[in-house]
Amino acid sequence: MQNYDVLVIGGGPAGLAAAIAAHKNGAKTLLVEREARLGGILKQCIHDGFGLVRFQEKLSGPEYAERFIDEFHKLNLEAKTLTFVTRLEKNASGFSAVLVNRDGVETVTAKALILATGCRERTAKQVNIHGTRPAGVFTAGTAQHFTNLLGELPTKKCVILGSGDIGLIMARRLTLEGAKVLGVYEAKSTPSGLTRNIHQCLHDYDIPLYLSHTVTRVFGADRLTAVEIAEVDDKMQPISGTEQILECDALILSVGLIPENELAETLDVQLDPKTKGPVCNAQLMTSVSGIFSCGNALHVNDLVDYVSESGEIAGENAAKYVKAERKEIPVKAGSRLLYAVPQKLDLNSDNQKTVLYFRSRDILNGCTFKITVDGKTVFSKKYPFLRPPEMEKLQIDFSQYQLSENSEIQLDIEVKSDE
Amino acid sequence: MNELVCIVCPKGCTMHIEQENGAYKVSGNTCKRGAQFAISEMTEPKRTICTTVRTVFSQAPVLPVRVSAEIPKDKIFDVMREINSIIVKNPVRRGDVLLKDVLNLGADIIATSDLLRQVEK
Amino acid sequence: MNLNQINKKLNARFHGAVRAKLSGGCIILSGELPTWQDTVEACQLAATKYSSTHVVNDIVCREVKSLPMRTPKLQDSALDGRKPDILIIGGGISGVSIARELSKWKLDILLVEKEADLALQASGRNDGEVHPGIDLSKGSKKHYYIRKGNAMFDEICRELDVPFRRVGQYVCFNKGFAKPLVYLYCLYRKKHSGISDTKLISGTELKRIEPNFAEEFKFAISNPSSGCVCPYGLTIAYAENAVQNGVEIALNTAVLDMEVENGEIKSVKTNRGVVYPKLVISAAGVFAEDIAKMANDRFFSIHPRRGTNSILDKKAGAYMHSIASVKDLTVSKTHSKGGGILHTVHNNLLIGPDAVETYEKENTETHKESIEAVFSKQKRTMPKLSERDIITYFTGVRAPTFEEDFIIESGRKTKNLIHCAGIQSPGLTTAPAVALDIEKMAVQMLRRVQTVEKNPNFSPIRHGVPVLKDMNDKQRAEMIRKNPDYGVIVCRCEEISKGEILDALRSPICVPTVDGIKKRIRPGMGRCQGGFCSPLVTQIIADFLGVPLSEVKKSSADSAITFGRTK
Question: What is the value of ipTM here, to two decimals?
Answer without folding.
Answer: 0.94
